[in-house]
Amino acid sequence: MTEHLPVIGIDVGGTGTKAVLADASGAVLAQRHRPTPPRAERVLELACSLVAELSEDAAPAAVGLVVPGVVDESRGVAVFSANLGWSDVPFRALLAERLGLPVAFGHDVRAGALAEHRLGAARGTADAVFLPVGTGISAAHVQNGRVHSGGGYAGEIGQVPVAGGRLEAVASAAAISRRYQERTADPVAGAAEVAQRVAAGDAIATGVWEEAVDALGGALIWLTALLAPEVVVVGGGLSQAGPLLFDPLSRRLEADWPLARAPRLVPAELGDRAGSLGAALLAADLAATKINRTEMG
Amino acid sequence: MTEHLPVIGIDVGGTGTKAVLADASGAVLAQRHRPTPPRAERVLELACSLVAELSEDAAPAAVGLVVPGVVDESRGVAVFSANLGWSDVPFRALLAERLGLPVAFGHDVRAGALAEHRLGAARGTADAVFLPVGTGISAAHVQNGRVHSGGGYAGEIGQVPVAGGRLEAVASAAAISRRYQERTADPVAGAAEVAQRVAAGDAIATGVWEEAVDALGGALIWLTALLAPEVVVVGGGLSQAGPLLFDPLSRRLEADWPLARAPRLVPAELGDRAGSLGAALLAADLAATKINRTEMG
Description:
The structure is a homodimer.
Chain A: E1 7-12, E2 16-22, E3 28-35, H1 40-54, E4 63-67, E5 70-72, E6 77-81, E7 86-89, H2 91-99, E8 103-107, H3 108-118, E9 127-132, E10 140-143, E11 146-147, E12 161-162, E13 165-166, H4 167-171, H5 173-184, H6 191-199, H7 203-227, E14 231-235, H8 243-256, E15 264-267, H9 274-296
Parallel strand pairs in A: 1-4, 4-8, 9-14, 14-15
Antiparallel strand pairs in A: 1-2, 2-3, 5-6, 6-7, 9-10, 10-11, 12-13
Helix pairs in contact in A: 1-2, 3-9, 5-6, 5-7, 6-7, 7-8
């Protein structure tokens, strides 16, 4: 009766790795947070020890692992990650062999999109785009419970050239902080502090912010034109900015998008747990598939 | 044995309506071309008379009808067309009632995408974007035999603001011709004639052309970033321009898209028959579904 067993989701980030033990409905029973170690081999060891810790009461039905970069879900391979310094790592097969458990493997942002669609801000919608704006910027389109992968390359909108550089060099949370510091030689703790200065009337902060929002608005228009999603879920650190971000983006859609249907813009609900919850959903789906196969076989 | 019967596909365009009688493999057995009449009622009458003409030898298994504008495939309704002046016409139900035959209803460009994917330039690919550049500009993404519809609103990239106006006011075949005439007061027969003047070294023609290609290149970068399709099939009148269009677009992708996977750019193969062939495919799919239901029921 593996359908009643919990699953484990692990989200390997650029600096930290998060793991959740969750039931089939996505409710979190336990969680862990560790620094991400260097090298794929050490990441596999960490995943095994997180699974061991979270499996003390009962063996999970399956484990889901998600990573950033270019991910080929169909082959279970991490094709490339500049930040984590790996290429062509067959994580799914390697982890399944070490754990002796079914392993699902995926992409952190696409898994986050799945989680926001099933459990978070896009619950109940026909389709949604998840748009995390943090250290980088990307987008994932989820529909009918599936996220479009494009062979692992879909959604890398942070790489699109816009006025002032590539999108994520202008409009990511990291870029907003860096650009403000470049113009003022005044260190800030992050984009949230730049946002505070915008609210306080700082002209340089306002300039940096408006350039970022303008670039994000352009991205929003293009994804609306191409996909016409019912909802765009804005996540990542920048989504914390609230009306300072959402109001001008909504105005941009109103001003520049002439068609009757524009997406609703909503903040993400799952925060930095979207990836690990998405990994748990991939694991739960895998476990359910195996049950069906067993029952039908 | 309806699976061996032919199907009929009808593509209602802004000026002309095309109809094909095709077998299940998409081979055209007969075709007709008529001016598109005003008003939805007259379009229905035309569709009935085209079906009667093309059904002389044998009743078709099903009929597919596709129209431009905002189309809700799930309800079988033409929501809106500025050019054809209709709104909320339940074409599928109306035509099925008059014909007494199964009727599939869809969108002209999405049907064209299906046809290019199954029978044309994107045969054998995992996914493709069909990008017709003619009187207007739109895009349709096809994957696993399905075209993303976005409730009828997906793909309207012609409406995106770019330098100089909306994309289709700068980069459509119609816009290229119009913009050249505005700058020279020299009438041209169409974008093809502007292309000839570009090839002959005309500076004004070159300027108009480069602005159009630049805007199309931007659209290509965004759709690549969001969808990472294996192939982009460029159709419509402008695709006739050959290397004058495809070479600078390819260079733009090389210059501005940093990731390993970029789509192949190819010209459409089905020309102005893509829509009617796509309508025939929708009809064939509908007929096949009915057969399966009957066999299983």
